[in-house]
Structure formats: C-alpha cells, structure tokens
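Handover notes (outgoing to incoming on-call)

Open items:
1. Ground-like domain protein: sequence verified, structure written out, both below. Nothing else pending on this one.
2. Nothing else urgent.
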Amino acid sequence: MGERTKLKVSFKKLQQEAAAAGQPNEEVIEEQDNALEKSESAHSTPSPVVSTTLADAVEERVVDIATLNLTDDPLCNSEDLRKLMLDNIDENLNSSKRLIQLAAEAQFGGRFDVICANGDFSYVTNTELFCQETKGDISCYTYRQL
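Ground-like domain protein structure tokens:
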C-alpha cells in the first residue's frame, strides 16, 4: 500500500472515530450487555471484548521530544502541532477536540489531552509539547501527557 493510500486510510479512520465521539461508547454498551447476559444466565460466561483503535496502536509509538523542532512561543511550542490543530478545528467543539486528539496521537504518539471552548479558558499543565490555537470563535489547547 502506498504512503498516500495509508494516509487516506488513516485520515478516514480518524474521521470515523471523531464522528463516533459524540455517540455512546461501544465498550460501555458492550459491558452493560455483558452484565445483563451474566445476570440472566449464571452458567454462561461472556467472552471478554477486546477493542483496538488507531489511538491504541499509536499510543505505544512516541516521537522523542528531542527530535521535534520546538520553539520558544509560550502559547505553542510546535509549528507542526499548530498546523495540525488549525487543520482539525471545525465549527463543533466536540468533533474539533476529538479530531485534534486523534491526529496528534497519530503524528506524535503518546496520549494527548485537548480542551476546546468558545472564547477564553484558564488552565495549568505540566508538559513538554503543547499548543493553544484559535480558529473562528473556537479556541483549543492540546498537550501531550508526560
């Protein structure tokens, strides 16, 4: 599979996961269903459900902070992360934060937290990779967990 095809497949997967972000968590639904089945039949043991997402796969691959081109900007220390955020902020707060999270984890590895709001917000974080950016009336802050 070519690199361009892989990127298209990865982006499509990111979009699907972001769209699902506003829906009930499948694992929670499955756990509820399993609990119901277990209570109905004490002799039947449901098989554990294993769910692997793109985020789970890239979480293990973390781009070393020393290899990144970081800046001294107090609001955003990575131009790559800034571009990623601007590309993924849309008119919806929930889809924006989920798209940013999935794209950042795919590009940089590790676990990212994302905060989005209409207007200003206040926060304190302990991190090495971070960015705050605004597009339209939506402001988002994202950072990689240590």
